[in-house]
Amino acid sequence: xxxxxxxxxxxxxxxxxxxxxxxxxxxxxxxxxxxxxxxxxxxxxxxxxxxxxxxxxxxxxxxxxxxxxxxxxxxxxxxxxxxxxxxxxxxxxxxxxxxxxxxxxxxxxxxxxxxxxxxxxxxxxxxxxxxxxxxxxxxxxxxxxxxxxxxxxxxxxxxxxxxxxxxxxxxxxxxxxxxxxxxxxxxxxxxxxxxxxxxxxxxxxxxxxxxxxxxxxxxxxxxxxxxxxxxxxxxxxxxxxxxxxxxxxxxxxxxxxxxxxxxxxxxxxxxxxxxxxxxxxxxxxxxxxxxxxxxxxxxxxxxxxxxxxxxxxxxxxxxxxxxxxxxxxxxxxxxxxxxxxxxxxxxxxxxxxxxxxxxxxxxxxxxxxxxxxxxxxxxxxxxxxxxxxxxxxxxxxxxxxxxxxxxxxxxxxxxxxxxxxxxxxxxxxxxxxxxxxxxxxxxxxxxxxxxxxxxxxxxxxxxxxxxxxxxxxxxxxxxxxxxxxxxxxxxxxxxxxxxxxxxxxxxxxxxxxxxxxxxxxxxxxxxxxxxxxxxxxxxxxxxxxxxxxxxxxxxxxxxxxxxxxxxxxxxxxxxxxxxxxxxxxxxxxxxxxxxxxxxxxxxxxxxxxxxxxxxxxxxxxxxxxxxxxxxxxxxxxxxxxxxxxxxxxxxxxxxxxxxxxxxxxxxxxxxxxxxxxxxxxxxxxxxxxxxxxxxxxxxxxxxxxxxxxxxxxxxxxxxxxxxxxxxxxxxxxxxxxxxxxxxxxxxxxxxxxxxxxxxxxxxxxxxxxxxxxxxxxxxxxxxxxxxxxxxxxxxxxxxxxxxxxxxxxxxxxxxxxxxxxxxxxxxxxxxxxxxxxxxxxxxxxxxxxxxxxxxxxxxxxxxxxxxxxxxxxxxxxx
Length: 878
What we know:
The chain is of the alpha+beta class. It has 4 domains: 5-257, no CATH class; 262-443, Serine Threonine Protein Phosphatase 5, Tetratricopeptide repeat (Alpha Horseshoe), CATH 1.25.40; 645-757, Serine Threonine Protein Phosphatase 5, Tetratricopeptide repeat (Alpha Horseshoe), CATH 1.25.40.10; 788-877, Pleckstrin-homology domain (PH domain)/Phosphotyrosine-binding domain (PTB) (PH-domain like), CATH 2.30.29.30. It has 35 helices and 13 strands. The chain has a 7-stranded antiparallel beta sheet. Strands 2-1-4-3-5-6 form a 6-stranded mixed beta sheet, sandwiched between helices. α5 links the parallel β3 and β4 (110-112). α18 (374-392) packs antiparallel against α19 (397-413), α22 (458-475) packs antiparallel against α23 and α23 packs antiparallel against α24 (500-518). The longest helix has 29 residues, at 236-264. The two termini are 54 Å apart. Keywords: Repeat, TPR repeat. This is Tetratricopeptide TPR_2 repeat protein.
């Protein structure tokens, strides 16, 4: 094994040495030095000067002036050898001057710069063991204390494609106390500032397309060693995220600085300034800094109101952005208010049947959907559908997207049959237009699977999910977040069937994929931990469940912050687990924390708030505090009736659970009244043979038995499907009431059955389908592959760029607001005139008759703009 002690990174070269080398380059190569790369300088100047002594350039400097030119390194330089050497050296000099002027450190700056510090006559790192990269190298950077990343060109920065540079950046950001500074050459700085004023968040996105596993190195052995260090250490997901976070923060600081610079120049009343504020607001909102985003949007709005008036289209655009920001904050009423203002402008200025008006109807539908007001959401989705049908026809993929939106709303409304009907309509259009083997088609199968699962038709649900899985594996690959979502969905169904080991296996498949692609610190990874915990809870292994919930909660709080609905869901789950082991006081404490967040973020009148009231009620019921339990059930019921209506499965569940509390209290007449209300709803909405209907029948039977009314015990045992765990208890109890044999199961459940819809357990299915993956068990949003992923799309009339979820197959290119939202537009490839890169490859232009759609990169995508462009053109040429 090589002696690695001599390879510790300790020395650096002075500013004077950098200046001298730059002067030597200019002297030796007066006509070409400005175009020479670092590699050129190595071959043409460094190697000839050091070849005879077979040493590093720093050794010659040490001989010339050991104290003036060489000292303890204070800055580690990360750069790409394809850069122009003059640009790199000038960045180092500019950085050193900044430190001198700011007087941040009285000590002189010494740069660890590999061109000078390594012996360029031999590959000294070739025989270093893998552990050197993950220990000695990382520790050396920590000892230096600062990493300077030279980033250029800003539109396509080379370091983000080089394995060496990514590892160097990570070694900096992962060491506590090590500062990472990012710099551009002066010429690039001015170009970036100009681009920021004209464009939007896409400027940032150009800098953060980080996929370490796709990075390359000049020497394949270097790449292998670095990859091994990553895989044995933090993993690619964590590396990607750490580098992205650092670069995004830097880019955001540059954008804010551009705003401040315009303000300092007295340009803060111009429309250009308004556009810049709008762009910065989009970035801030994407970083979950919603309050700061709103502040920037308000500045833009004030200017556009002055220059365009209240009916300006830019005014409409910023109202829409404000709606998005308030929605992200959970301030849903304000979100809807701003979307309605945008709608009023679009209807008056563009007309009722304009595509932008249809988009706004869709946004409003999504807003009311998030509020839990499904009837109003459906009304707006139907307006969107009417415009789409009128302009594009019934068999257009955009129309199928509208069917999907309606299916999702009906699903959440509890009208599963109508949801399935709309999902099938969407499926038929997509199969005809895009083919069976397409991600959009797979989405519709998942949507149907969700509805069948909630109808307790689990075999049909599994069949739909397996069709979706087959397509996604074939089209997107096994290691894809959308594939992980289907594994997760299958886990939900297996859990509902009581097949907990199969459920855990499916959840663990989803977790493994998410860990690899998204990393440990990601909301969807937290969802997987949460779901595994739910399965263990249902198995009765509450300690293991709590351990998984704790892991999910740690990640969630770090990534999303304390006040977020997903955190409330985790608190809810912790409460359920503690209730399961009889710790009702601790359970109530968790529920109350969840309730506080939900009331604050979602409002009192929201289905999720109602469900938490239900959980608190059940905890008090388990404590024997029946009056308090009934009071909380009444709060839950009032919200559900107001939002979902009297005839909704969740409303029926509240009647059922309230009946349980009255039954435990001994008020059997009140209990039966509640049960019969629940039964009437379930018979109408779910049908005679639904397990939930059977459960309520069983509760009524048990109460009549207690009152010696055995003749009124339901005789319809045939309706009980005892294949499912939630109805096995009912089957046994009904047989016991009539004196039948229990088929060998000696355990009897003498108590009434609490209705468990699953929503109180908050099972998250990340990356919902655009059509209808909207189950209580499914997560709200958020992915990547050449045919599926995030991009930034510019709005009409040069409005701001906004993130969109894009999908491509050989027939259509579709985009939506997110993977969890219904699609906004589907572009038939038959209509596409061209797809090409523009603006120095920073934009993808997709032209159709009368319009050009403009897209830019998004940091969450695995796919570059060039790959999108190539994929679209491949489809056009087939």
